[in-house]
Amino acid sequence: MPKLISLFLAAALAGLTVTAQARGNASCEWKTPAGDPFVGDVPGAVDSYTDIPVRTRERLKVRMKAFAYDDIVSIRRDAIEGNHRYEPALLDMHFGQRRICGKVTRNSWHPDHVERALTYCEDGQCIVVPLICRNVSRIIRRPAVQTGGTPAEPLAFEPPAAGPAMWPVVPPADNPTAHTLQAPPTASRMPPAADLPPGSTPLQPNPLPPAADVPAPDSPPLPPPPELPPVVTPPPEQQQPPPVPEPPPLQPNWPMPGIPPLPPAPPVPEPATVLLWAAGLAALAAWQRRRAATEAGPGRPCSPSP
After folding, report:
1. Where are the domains of the chain?
2. Residue 175 scores a pLDDT above 70
3. CA 23, CA 27: separation in Å to the nearest integer?
4. All residues at 6 or more sequence positions from 49 whose CB lies less than 8 Å from its CB, including other chains
């Protein structure tokens, strides 16, 4: 019996030690992103967040296995930027195999240092996985903000429909037969005379102004329009426009008067021509030297004296 109690206590202490090792320190400094990468199962790391409901964790793991991310964010020293708004803090980051840091700071980063990461969000819970080290962490996504700066909320009333302006009028208590006027009075919509209060004159619609080309009943008749002269058509030979004279041909204006023409420039021999001349002269000199040697002949020995 004492041995069983000892084994039970040892197992409990081992579990507490493993849990403490998994949670690690409350705050850590993420100095080198690639220095201590997470080497465990990336989707399975979500199970360490026991405060997230099981169904939400399962949906997150399925999406992480399929790389169905919501956003690609840029992790900077003091902010996390993406298509949505995020809190700058990184929470519960996984290092190595079992070590988890509650809050990760990036104070030692350079202001221009950026690390890209994928985010997965379900039911308000967001997981971020940096691409360089796979250190699974949690971030908080802020709610969407309207132009006015307040979070978007549903309307407390039905949106108004397009149409003419409505002028609601509350019927007076002393006139129960009055009707509510639903639109401004027009020529086709006038309140009945029975509904008007005593002593009032019914409204008359504005008469249409007379047309400009319709004379008044008492005006004198208009004079007839003047007759126009008949149209005279010229003969066919006069309908052609007169011919346009051709302009004189242009005379060359070069050379200008008073300036004598310049003599032609001497031709400049090409390099190949000069080389041919030099080769010809060298061949001619060699030929002359050979000819002179041939004409001189070989030297004759001196004959003996008698």
Report:
1. 15-139
2. no
3. 10
4. 57, 92, 125, 138
